[in-house]
Every structure is written in C-alpha cells, then in structure tokens.
C-alpha cells in the first residue's frame, strides 16, 4: 500500500483471507477488505484518536443515511457527547485527487446530518472546514482541530 502522510498503523491488524488482504477495523469490530480507501480510513481514524484526542466511542465508520430518497453512506461520522453529528469525514484513495466534486459529495451528506466540521483526506492531503450556521459561512482550517476544540465550537451551532 502507498505510504501516507499520517502516523503508521500496527501491521498486526492485517491478515490474509484467501486471496484478500484484510485489516481489522476496531470501530466496526471486524476485519474488512484492505482497499486503498480503507487504508486511508484506518490511518486517519488512528490519527484522530492518537494525535487529536477523539474518543473511539464517538466515531463510527460506514454510517448510512437517506438523501432525497436514496440510501447513501458516510465514510466516518464523529458525534459530540450528546450524540449529534459533529464531523463528517470522507476518504479517497491516495491516487484520487481531492477536488470540488469530493467536497460537493460531503456537503450533500451534510444536508442531512448538519455537522459542524467537514473533513476530506486521500491520505496525502487533508482538508477540514468549519461551518458557521449562524452566518451561513465556512472556513478552511490549517489542520484538523483536536476533539476538545471541536466540542467547544460545536456548542455554537
């Protein structure tokens, strides 16, 4: 797999199942196929927990939602302590550029969830923006904020 711009993972989480390499996802409690996007997800979630203080209990992978009558799936959703969506994270494979189309996708998901933060990563480039619902504006942040900052900001939705 491609080396990423994120802290390394514990390789003991990898296993081979026939011809498929799998990685253990501690949030889902099971092994899943190790696709390039999953490689990014596992690294990014690990980074969120270890470097930014996000509690595993408030992070969920593969969250379903209904948008305009169609079932969709958010890659990762982080909840605040009251159980409301605080951040949506969308992952792309390292070879996929983070474009306006990717942001359009996460913004559509946010029409349902109304999270305060939207984050996109391809494992090499990471972007996070904070939405201000009071002023109907958004701002890109220089880096992913830590959990305590997100919780403080989230009170102002």
Please give a structural write-up.
With 157 residues, the protein is α+β, with helices and mostly antiparallel strands. The protein has helices at residues 36-52, 100-113, 147-154, and strands spanning 14-17, 20-25, 30-33, 59-67, 70-79, 85-91, 117-121, 126-132, 137-140. A six-stranded mixed β-sheet has the order 4-5-6-7-8-9, with helices on both faces. The chain has a three-stranded antiparallel β-sheet with strand order 1-2-3, covered by helices on one side. A hairpin with a 5-residue loop joins strand 5 and strand 6.
List keywords for this structure.
157 residues; alpha+beta; 3 helices; 9 strands
End-to-end separation in angstroms reads 39 Å
Q: Total strand count, please?
A: 9
Mean pLDDT across all amino acids? 91
- How do the SSEs run, as a string of H and E? EEEHEEEHEEEH
Relative strand content: 35-45%
Which parts are unreliable, with pLDDT below 50 for 5 consecutive residues or more? Answer: none
| Sheet with the most strands, sense and barrel status | 6 strands, mixed
Helicity range: 10-25%
- Helices, by number, come to 3
Strands in their spatial order, largest beta sheet: 4-5-6-7-8-9
Shape: globular
Given helix and strand content, the structural type is alpha+beta
Over the alpha carbons, how many angstroms does the gyration radius reach? 15 Å
Q: In a few lines, what is going on in this structure?
A:
The protein is built from three helices and nine strands.
Helices, strands, pairings?
Layout (H helix, E strand, L loop, with lengths): L13 E4 L2 E6 L4 E4 L2 H17 L6 E9 L2 E10 L5 E7 L8 H14 L3 E5 L4 E7 L4 E4 L6 H8 L3
Parallel strand pairs: 6-7
Antiparallel strand pairs: 1-2, 2-3, 4-5, 5-6, 7-8, 8-9
